């Protein structure tokens, strides 16, 4: 048990819609990262937040956005959904400032299907 | 640009066999970290080990051991006397500092380990 929870577990949307995924980190974990994991692939880094500000971003378009709240919860928002957005979305939290070498603790993920 | 290669897509063994999962990485940084994670069917990535680029000591934790060799840019993972519960997908990951020191991780494609009773 990592203490990181995500909701919902599964979600089905249609192309063009918007979606919000939620994550609750461990108390004291000030950094949260989001990953996209397509079927049969490794996780791909989307972005990272430290104390409610984005401090790192992977190669994802601006329609992927996030929010982090003071109560250790966070959201991943995806606008204008495309079929290729179908994937497992993982949230991970860490104690540090999101620096290289921090150990991340992952949630179970949200499986998003875009039809 | 950083890259992680896990050439073994799937490995199938019988319980009690030893198995080694390979990981080869590419980076231009001198300071970087390497990780191994286990992903059981439930989907949650479980942290196994972290190693920084300045520490080439091998590590053993119970039935698990890791061999880090900078000369070959490899960070291999061995499970001794495998058990059915070891069945999972295993990911190797590399992180190097991005701009401002933020964490930019790259994962390999994973190796699916199947341990038969």
What order do the SSEs of chain B take from the amino end to the carboxyl end, as H and E? EEEEEEEEEEEE
Q: Write down the oligomeric state.
A: heterodimer
What percentage of the residues of chain B does DSSP assign to strands (E)? over 45%
Query: Helix segment count of chain B?
Result: 0
Put the structure in a nutshell:
The complex is a heterodimer of chains A (115) and B (117). Chain A is an all-beta fold and 115 residues long. Chain A has strands spanning 5-7, 10-13, 19-24, 31-37, 44-50, 53-57, 64-68, 73-78, 87-94, 105-106, 110-114.
General description of the model:
The complex is a heterodimer of chains A (115) and B (117). Chain A is built from no helices and 11 strands. By secondary structure, chain A is an all-beta fold. In chain A, a hairpin with a 2-residue loop joins strand 5 (44-50) and strand 6 (53-57). The mean pLDDT of chain A is 92. Chain B contains no helices and 12 strands. In chain B, strands 2, 5, 6, 10, 11 and 12 form a 6-stranded mixed β-sheet that branches. Chain B has a 4-stranded antiparallel β-sheet with strand order 3-9-8-7, with no helix packed on it. In chain B, 32% of the residues are buried. The mean pLDDT of chain B is 91. The chains are: A mainly beta (115), B mainly beta (117). Chain A binds chain B through residues 2, 33, 40-45, 48, 55-56, 58, 88, 90, 92, 98-109, 111, and chain B through 4, 31-33, 37, 42-47, 50, 52, 91, 93, 95-98, 100-110.
């Amino acid at each position: 048990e990592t203490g990181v929870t995500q909701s919902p577990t599964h979600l089905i949307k249609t192309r063009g819609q918007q979606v919000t995924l939620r994550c609750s980190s461990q108390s004291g974990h000030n950094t949260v990262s989001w990953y996209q994991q397509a079927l049969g692939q490794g996780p791909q880094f989307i972005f990272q937040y430290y104390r409610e500000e984005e401090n790192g971003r992977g190669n994802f378009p601006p329609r992927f956005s996030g929010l982090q709240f003071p109560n250790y919860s966070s959201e991943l928002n995806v606008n204008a959904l495309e079929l290729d957005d179908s994937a497992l979305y993982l949230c991970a939290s860490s104690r540090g400032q999101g620096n290289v070498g921090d150990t991340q603790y992952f949630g179970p993920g949200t499986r998003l299907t875009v039809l | 640009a950083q890259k992680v290669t896990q050439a073994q897509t799937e490995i199938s063994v019988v319980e009690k066999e030893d198995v080694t999962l390979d990981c080869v990485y590419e980076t231009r940084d001198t300071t970087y970290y390497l990780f191994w994670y286990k992903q059981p069917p439930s989907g949650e990535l479980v942290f196994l080990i972290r190693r920084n680029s300045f520490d080439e000591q091998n590590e053993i934790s119970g039935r698990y051991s890791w061999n880090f060799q900078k000369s070959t840019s490899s960070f291999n993972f061995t499970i001794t006397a495998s058990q059915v519960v070891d069945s999972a997908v295993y990911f190797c990951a590399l992180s190097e500092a991005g701009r401002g020191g933020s964490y930019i991780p790259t994962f390999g494609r994973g190796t699916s380990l199947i341990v038969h009773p």
